TrEMBL record:
Entries under InterPro entries matching the protein: Cell_Envelope_Assoc, DUF218, Rossmann-like_a/b/a_fold
Transmembrane stretches, start-end: 6-21, 28-46, 58-83, 95-120, 126-149, 156-174, 318-337
Organism of this sequence: Pediococcus parvulus
Keywords: Membrane, Transmembrane, Transmembrane helix
Pfam families hit by this protein: DUF218
Record domain DUF218: where: 163-311
Listed PANTHER family: ENVELOPE BIOGENESIS FACTOR ELYC, INNER MEMBRANE PROTEIN, PROBABLE PERMEASE
UniProt-recorded name of the protein: DUF218 domain-containing protein
Length: 339
């Protein structure tokens, strides 16, 4: 099989899909598939090389990869447990934190059972069950990598003029001031606004966020105050103060923007871990909004990304269930009738 050919096809599809709509979940999968095909193609080309030093280097690489994969899994599992314990210690026991810790323990259990079965049990049934579990973990990891790559691509700057810059709300501090995570969204929006003004555009801000039960004012009011304090005219700010979720943020903001200008072009700003899922929601609402990433604190980013991927997984739960079922059935057929 000519993997370079299939890699070129996958990358061509990725570029086409991404240029037409960066909010597709398939974008990352085609990019990953293309890169994997090219890696395999290079490996095949090296295999036919007769130079002794090349053959030796490939052997060493194979041995290193064979050792690195289980070690990397073990460290990943340990990181999940330690990181979740830290979150639980500082923020209390929440479902997401417990799930992250559980995933770490499950991976450690699988690695231990794999070692024991290799050394002592040598049970075909255990190998079959482990194969299914590793297949599921592989599928989840590829999906997470697709989500991560799609989120990174939203770091690219916008090269067109917009009519509106939507800032998605986040929590406020006890005194009603914006939280650190929300401040980063607002600062990113201000930077984009200044870039747009240099292009000759005059976009308006739409600050979107209602009032939580533990907040003394709507998030939109606090965001508006922050923008005014940082040099944005009050006339350039539209407040949307009824939203309690990302879906409502985007839906209500779209209604307000359409009232202001029927045919408009808008972008929304949120943090890097959240931008892709928000884009998928915007796509489902049949809007043209694309997302722009604001930075996220490095200590919070791992869990935030994990939580966002779980939310994305559940958004496409039936598709994921069908794919996992197909992979599992195919694996069982291979194991029972071919292997």
């Amino acid at each position: 099989m000519d993997f370079s050919y299939w890699g070129s096809i996958c990358l061509a599809v990725f570029i086409t899909l991404w240029l037409t709509d960066r909010r597709r979940f398939l974008n990352g999968y085609f990019l990953i598939a293309g890169l994997i095909c090219f890696v395999i193609a290079v490996w095949q080309w090296l295999e036919v090389t007769q130079a002794p030093w090349m053959q030796a280097m490939m052997l060493i690489t194979s041995l290193v990869l064979t050792g690195i994969i289980p070690i990397a899994l073990a460290f990943f599992a340990l990181a999940c447990v330690l990181y979740s314990r830290r979150l639980i210690r500082y923020s209390g026991s929440q479902l997401g934190y417990v799930m992250l810790e559980t995933i770490g323990f499950v991976i450690w259990g699988m690695l231990i059972v794999t070692l024991l079965n290799s050394l002592f049990f040598r049970s075909h049934l255990i190998w079959m069950i482990l194969g299914i579990l590793f297949l599921w973990i592989g599928y989840l990891m590829v999906g997470f990598l697709s989500y991560a790559l799609s989120s990174l691509l939203d770091e690219l700057p916008i090269l067109y003029s917009v009519d509106f810059i939507v800032i998605l709300g986040a929590g406020l501090l006890a005194d009603g001031s914006v939280s650190r995570i929300l401040q980063r969204r607002l600062d990113k929006g201000i930077a984009i606004y200044k870039q747009q003004r240099k292009r000759g555009a005059h976009p308006q801000f739409v600050v979107s966020g209602g009032q939580g039960s533990d907040e003394i004012m709507p998030e939109s009011r606090a965001m508006g105050n922050y923008l005014i304090e940082n040099g944005i005219a009050k006339s350039q700010i539209i407040q949307e103060n009824a939203s309690t979720s990302t879906y409502e943020n985007l839906y209500n903001s779209e209604i307000l923007m359409t009232k202001e200008k029927v045919f408009h072009r808008a972008i929304f700003v949120t943090n890097s871990f959240h931008v892709f899922r928000a884009g998928v929601i915007a796509k489902r609402l049949h809007t043209t909004m694309s997302g722009i990433s604001a930075s996220t604190s490095i200590h919070y980013l791992p869990f935030a990304a994990f939580r966002e991927y779980l939310a994305l997984f559940m958004m496409f739960k039936w598709t994921n269930a069908m794919i996992l079922a197909t992979l599992t059935i195919s694996y069982l057929i291979y194991w029972l009738f071919v292997y």
